[in-house]
Amino acid sequence: MQNEQKPVQALKAHLALNVKDVEVSLEFYRKLLGIEPSKVRTGYAKFDVQNPPLNLTLNQHVFNERGALSHLGIQVASTDDVLVIRERWTEAGLLTRDEMQTSCCYALQDKTWVRDPDGNEWEVFVVLEDNLPETVCCAPTPIGVANASAVSKASCC
Predict the structure, then answer these.
(1) According to the CATH classification, is domain 10-150 in 3.30.450.20?
(2) What is the Cα 58 distance to its own chain's centre?
(3) What's the pTM?
(4) Does the N terminus or the C terminus of the chain have fewer Cβ atoms within 10 A?
């Protein structure tokens, strides 16, 4: 008998880009997308694109090469959906890392992470509370790192 899986309501894809200068990138993405960002903070901006459904964030980082991918994600409707997907990933043999009730991207979120063979991190997350004031933000703790405080919190997801 085939294992019944609970359906998950995925809301939109999430793409987080590392950029050298958020202000310069904001001008480009305003033109590219034809919309204003839904959230702007120091070194961070978010575009909530409706068509196609996309949560696009710009994260300011210092780098010498061309723009680099920060991480990828799938936004879902509830913490239950996060837990269902985490269970699927775990059953498939993927190593997961949870961040529940975490303040990230100026929002309170529940999430879990996996990493692909090339080191690209994927998250599945729910936003519990959005548009929090500018405070310390998070950088994703690398999978396999036990002590999250050992990871710099200077950048946002």
Answers:
(1) no
(2) 11
(3) 0.66
(4) N
